[in-house]
Amino acid sequence: MSTKNNVIIKDGTAIESALLFERGEEMPPERRLRSWMMQIFPSVFASLICLPFGIMLGWPSPTYPKLLALTSPIPISMDQTAMVAGFLMIGNIFGTLISDGSFFGTKYGIILGLCGMLVGWILMWFAADIYYLLSSRIIIGLSFGYAAGQLKIYIKELCEPQLAQVLSKCINFYALFGVVIAYILGYFLSFTTFSLAVMILTAVLIAISLFLPHSAREYLRFGKTKEAETMIKYLKSDAKIDFEMQKLNLDLMLKADNFSIFQMLRKEKLRKPFAVVVLLTFFQQFTGAPATVVYAQMTLRATQLPYAELCAIGYIVLFFISNLIGVFYCSKFNRKYCLLFSNIAVSATLVLNVCTIYYDFNRTYWKYTSLVSLCLYIFFHSIGLAVVPTMLIPDYFPARARNVVSKVQIMCFSAFAIIITKIFQVLYHNYSLYVAFLLFSCISIVSAFFIVAFVPYKPFVYVESNNNIKNEKEAISL
Fold first, then answer.
1. Which of 400, 195, 385, 162 is nearest to 290 (CA)?
2. Average pLDDT value for the chain
3. Average pLDDT over residues 373-381
4. How sure is the predictor about 8, in pLDDT bands with cuts at 50, 70 and 90?
5. Which domain range does residue 424 map to?
6. Cα(379)–Cα(332) distance, rounded to whole angstroms?
7. Nearest to 149, CA basis, from 371, 456, 403
8. Which residues pair with 23 in a beta bridge?
9. Residues in domain Major facilitator superfamily (MFS) profile (predicted)?
10. Is residue 204 part of a domain?
C-alpha cells in the first residue's frame, strides 16, 4: 500500500482519503472527544460561508413579486427575471474553474470568497437599476464558486477521512438552509433591509473566519514546522508526529497527480460513467426543480393558492428536509433503484401538477391541491434525482479523477439550471404554467428510460495499471 497526496493505492485501486494518522497509543475517550471537536468546530464554522450564497440563491422567489409590482424600487420585466437568476450560476461556473488555487492557503481563500460575497451584497443594498442586480449576483456566484472549492480542501486537510466525508456532505445543506432563510427574510423585510441584514451576517462570518486554524499541511507550506507539529498533536494526540510530518512533507514535494479533463476522457473505461453523470445532471435540472425554487411564490400565486407567501416558505422547508433525507438515508440503498423510484414518482407528480393547473383543481376540489401536488413533486425529486448524481462520482471514478469530474458536474449543474429557468420563464409568461410542467414531465419520462438502460446496478470498477501503482510505490520509497 502507498500514500500520495491523500490518495491510497491499495490492491490496484485508488482510494481517496483525508488526513491520515499512523497511531501510537490508543487515545482515551475524553481526548478522542477533544480531537473530534478540534476537527468539527472549525469545519462547521468554515462551512457557514455557504449561507450568504444560499440566501442569494433563494432571493428571487420572495423578491421578484416586489420588483415586478408597480411600486417596485427597481422595475424589471418578466423577461429579465431569468437573466437575473442566471447570473448567479454564471459566476458560480467561473468560480468553480479556479477553486483549486490556494495562493495564500485555504483559510485565506475562504476569507477572500466571503469578502467577495460581502461586496456583492453591498451592491445589492445600493442597487438602483438592473445592472446592480446582475453585478451583485455574478460577484456572489464567482466568490462562492471559488470559496466552496477552498472549503472542501480545508475540511479534507483538517479532518480524518470518515469525518471529512460526513462534513463535506453537509456543505450543500448550509447553502440550502440559506435558501430557507431567504424565503423567511423576504416575507418580513423590504428589499433594502433584506440586503442590509445579509451584509451584516456576511461581515460577522468574515470576523469568525479570521480565527479559523490553519491545517498542518498549510503550516508546513508556510515553513512553520513547529505549528504544524502542534496542530497534529491537537488533532490526534496518539499520532506518530515524525511519521505524519514526513508524509506531509512528501505530499508537498510531489506534484499533484489528479487527472485533467482531457486525461480522464482519454481513458476509455471512464468515458461512459462520465457521460452517465453529465446526463443524469441534465435530467436532474430539466425535470424542473431549479425553476420551481426560483419562481416558487409566483408559481403558487398563479394557481390561485391562498397565503402563497407562507405556503412558499413551507415548500422550501420541505425541500430542505427532503434533501437531508436523500443524502443521509436514501444513500444507503442501491443507487439505480433509488434513482428509478424517485424518477417514476417525479413523473407521476408532474402529471398531477399538469392536471391540477390545467383543470384548476384548486377551485374544483380543494383550494390547497396545488400546494400538495408541488410538495409531493419536490419531495420525491429531492430524495433521488437531486442527490444521487453527485453520489455516483466516488462510485464511478478513481480518486485521481474525482476532483475534475466533480468540478465539471458542478458547472453542468449551474449551466443546466440557467437554461431550464429561462425555458420555464418563457413558457410560463408566453403560454401557460401547465405547459412548463408538461415539458418537465416529458423529460422525466425520458429520464426513466435512460436510468433503466444506462445506469448500472453496481458501481463501475476502475483499476490503476500496474505501471501507475509501481510509480506510486517508487515515489513513496524515496
1. 385
2. 86
3. 97
4. very low
5. 262-477
6. 18
7. 403
8. 239
9. 38-459
10. yes
